[in-house]
Amino acid sequence: MTPADSTGAEPDLARYIRPHDMVVWGQASAEPRTLTGLLLAQRARIGRLRCFVGIPAESALTLETSDGLDIHSYCGSGTNAALHAAGRLDVVPVHYSALPRLLTDGPLRADVVLVQVSPPDGTGRHSLGLADDYFSAALDTARVVIAEINDQVPFTPGARTLGTGDWTAAIRTSRTPGRLPAGRVTEQTRAVARRVAGLIQDGATLQFGIGALPEAVLGELGDRRDLGIHSGILNDTAMRLIEEGTVTGARKSADRGIAVAGLLSGTEPLFRAAHRNPRVRLHATAYTHDPEVLAASHQLAAVNSAIEVDLTGQVNAETAGGRYVGAVGGAVDFLRGAARSPGGLPIVALPSTARGRSRIVARLDGPVSTPRSEPLIVVTEHGVADLRGLSVAARVERMLAIADPAHRPGLEAAAEAIPAAA
């Protein structure tokens, strides 16, 4: 299989993919966009398909190319939100650590995996390059694996490697991987980031999610020493901290001297810096989100964002205004790990308001993504509410103190209706 046969025709994916197959591919920068573009262009000829997708980054899958597909995802990020709002995408509310099992056993088991890999090394092995992550488990169980060998994908240490015997067919391409640049950082976001950064000490091991706030937190840590990284994702800002010597991993409990992640997602400088970089290692979700590994990490600071948090510490990270825009994701996995880590910090951070509305609320407008039974430290630009080990009444008091002052009177009135045994 090549990008085009001798007549200039596109490769015929119908040779490998059957109607009603579940097709899975890497998310964000790891999406094999030539293959997904071909799949979507040929979807009418192949027949109705099921797909499981993750975070989009310049994805070939859009509202215009999604008809005729039954699409599933764990998240509503980016363009997934529009797909969900249009009734084209079903969200599976699941912890990130459960995703590998979901795709290898059960109703969402992958029949076909489309995978983007690097050029081969001297032994003929190709690196997964930009993501080992959750989808790679399905490489062992899928009926068909089709590879896109992209000469702009880095050969990343630690990432699983594949040889020609590991796929059914392959194409060769040369294109910049999908980019996921940092979001716009407002002064409010920066103020929250400074509060979070003030909690993080030299030598801490960092976990962070995707978005403007986690990147802003990283941007405030330039004066720290010997930070480590064990995270689901590695982005441009984190790579800059590695190159500047702020992140050395010298005090990590495991993988000392190495930044561990499941996914690289950002822009070209990140992709170039990761190539054969001994200070970076990719691992599958089974390792990055392993509860025992996280609990043993030195001072694991888990920094996760939220859409809203109620006065008792329940977190909604999934929906806003009735639209699915987030995910359950790996927050609970990492918050639990940080809570068990010696000196760990299970942090949920968010600006106190959005569009004039309080994000500290008396009652959640969406689902409970993280229950209040999890030990949490909630941070806004107005302060830090450490809820670990507190009663309901004490939690309410601390949450009121970090709400926007303009909204506190209304929240205080609503709090009177919350019984101490709520």
Helix-strand blueprint:
Elements: E1 22-25, H1 33-41, H2 43-46, E2 49-53, E3 69-73, H3 80-85, E4 89-91, H4 99-104, E5 112-117, E6 126-127, E7 144-150, E8 161-162, E9 169-173, H5 187-197, E10 205-208, H6 212-219, E11 228-229, E12 233-234, H7 236-244, E13 259-261, E14 263-264, H8 268-274, E15 280-282, H9 285-288, H10 291-295, E16 300-305, E17 308-310, E18 315-316, E19 319-320, E20 323-324, H11 331-340, E21 345-349, E22 353-354, E23 357-358, E24 360-361, E25 377-380, E26 383-386, H12 392-402, H13 408-415
Parallel strand pairs: 1-2, 1-5, 2-3, 3-4, 5-7, 7-9, 10-11, 10-16, 12-14, 13-15, 16-21, 17-24, 21-25
Antiparallel strand pairs: 6-8, 17-18, 19-20, 22-23, 25-26
Helix pairs in contact: 5-6
What does this structure look like?
- Helix 5 (187-197) crosses helix 6.
- The chain has 2 domains: 13-173, 3-Layer(aba) Sandwich (Glutaconate Coenzyme A-transferase), CATH 3.40.1080; 187-415, 3-Layer(aba) Sandwich (Glutaconate Coenzyme A-transferase).
- It is globular and about 65 Å long.
- The strands form 8 sheets. Strands 4-3-2-1-5-7-9 form a 7-stranded parallel β-sheet. Strands 11-10-16-21-25-26 form a 6-stranded mixed β-sheet, with helices on both faces. Strands 18-17-24 form a 3-stranded mixed β-sheet, with helices on one face.
- Helices cover 23% and strands 21% of the residues.
- It has 13 helices and 26 strands.
- It has helices at 33-41, 43-46, 80-85, 99-104, 187-197, 212-219, 236-244, 268-274, 285-288, 291-295, 331-340, 392-402, 408-415; strands at residues 22-25, 49-53, 69-73, 89-91, 112-117, 126-127, 144-150, 161-162, 169-173, 205-208, 228-229, 233-234, 259-261, 263-264, 280-282, 300-305, 308-310, 315-316, 319-320, 323-324, 345-349, 353-354, 357-358, 360-361, 377-380, 383-386.
- The chain has 422 residues and is an alpha/beta fold.
- It starts with 21 loop residues before the first strand and ends in a 7-residue tail after the last helix.
